[in-house]
């Protein structure tokens, strides 16, 4: 965010800070990370606190920052998130992430997050007319967006990946696969293996190291920092029962409740949202999110993807950043990372990945922890 | 706290919750504990968030709860802490706790928390006239208090422990040790072995499973919950450099800054504090705390212990609950546990361990995370 700040500020101006992080404990054998961040950044002795709500950690951190300002105790609060995941091999990462599920009733049954979202996808396919192509098309769209995002971990389209594979085969004198379309490529079990049916590799967000950060200030002083502030118009956070105890698999109750709170505070409805970053840890998660948020009625999410409504040039652009799928998913950092993208979109400075619609004034972020145990929804507005 | 509530309330009245926990990740391979707590207690879909600042986790959680109320978003907030430490063998616990120190500069040098506080004790002995007896007398005092606390993990005096050992030796026909005083017993290397010189076993808080919880409500509605509310008059939180980078070893800068904030908000000075719970993870930590908080000038803390000023019948009773030393130290729960004790003291309902002085109107809690990376200080007042 520093690069887009219109006016300079000093680190000593920051009065309080929050850092969202899922599990530096298990990824790095390092707890109590908040004051270490303060020490490295030269921010001591300001109060700094680590917030943990699994993959919604920095979403929750932002909410704490907002309330700290609303309380009147502080005017300038730094809010960020971070995760260093690649210390461990892939299986280790899967295990660490699984510990965000219920360790009594879910993990011992063999559930990992690909398995959990695979079950959600299967339930959605059973209940509605959702098919494998719908899932894969979410990934194609998000890679199309991420290819336009220089900060994306995989800033490359599925088409590019397919073409590169064909070119490589040709160079090596191997048989060139006869994929004609991205869907041909994505349906190839060699190129895109099953992870947890009906989810394939390219249905899953990657393992990512990353950090995110924004400066929250009280509205009275926002113009000291930029001539074009973006306001946090609504925040919502809710808890939900773990998946094993949930009422249904095709919807996350916490997402519905968190968005209800955020819409109410902002005084808007789902229809007023121009652009959104939603928690696409798996392709099915984006479809479920767009239904939970009220963008589309339940079961209509897949058709909206099919019709291109969620693409950059659609009427409801979703995950213009590339989403977790293409931008990457450093879990504790993702919630604030979403807000960074919406900030750029509302200011009209997202460059090639700017949403094409004429009006981009209201944005939303949707950040999920665990199997829907936590959901944080923010509504942002260009003043 | 429920038992001392004057008026009943329903769990559905709770609007928001925070849970302080250091590392369920490493102790129990369970992250994202907040919504699991909400699910078990039947509190979904209210927002619930885990706060992690090492052993100051629930101290920080309480501060978030207070700001959530001050923000105007909520009126009734549950704040608690928990830690389940005994899953692991003692060496494992020591390693998990060490991960709250700096993993780049402290842990690889072989530092564990007993070692860190041993170094602090040595520095205090070098700089002032502190001796081993001063340390041991903190433990004697705190066990005297904890023996009066039915919820203490070790609700037994050092004298009792000594007498039991002698009786057991006699029963078994073994030579009966000739300990005459508690100090004789505590200086016996067999009975009280060195852990990290100059700290012995009985200088260290135990490994504990435990939880704590309070209900925070806005002052406007406090009388709906009790006829005798205790108010949170001041809160302070500060970060400090890790020990390896600190300016001095005989004081924690974060404690001085956090208490400055809390005193300022409450409009009091250290002299106004009638009773305090301080973070005695090791006996030396209590002495340093009483100096950092301004109760005694630097170097006078040990003499205050000698003179009985910090005992139940002293002019400045410290750790009437038994402190972490005797009550136990379930790390993420300790900060809110301290507040529970002060709540009882200010209401005059601490029974046999009620501070003896005539006026007990202002209380303080002092909760430290890591090697002083975080400190949270609260000032509580009887209205």
Automatic annotation (TrEMBL), chains A, B:
<dbReference type="GO" id="GO:0016747">
    <property type="term" value="F:acyltransferase activity, transferring groups other than amino-acyl groups"/>
</dbReference>
<dbReference type="InterPro" id="IPR002155">
    <property type="entry name" value="Thiolase"/>
</dbReference>
<dbReference type="InterPro" id="IPR055140">
    <property type="entry name" value="Thiolase_C_2"/>
</dbReference>
<dbReference type="Pfam" id="PF00108">
    <property type="entry name" value="Thiolase_N"/>
</dbReference>
<feature type="domain" description="Thiolase N-terminal">
    <location>
        <begin position="10"/>
        <end position="219"/>
    </location>
</feature>
<feature type="domain" description="Thiolase C-terminal">
    <location>
        <begin position="242"/>
        <end position="380"/>
    </location>
</feature>
<dbReference type="InterPro" id="IPR016039">
    <property type="entry name" value="Thiolase-like"/>
</dbReference>
<protein>
    <submittedName>
        <fullName>Uncharacterized protein MTH_793</fullName>
    </submittedName>
</protein>
<dbReference type="Pfam" id="PF22691">
    <property type="entry name" value="Thiolase_C_1"/>
</dbReference>
<dbReference type="InterPro" id="IPR020616">
    <property type="entry name" value="Thiolase_N"/>
</dbReference>
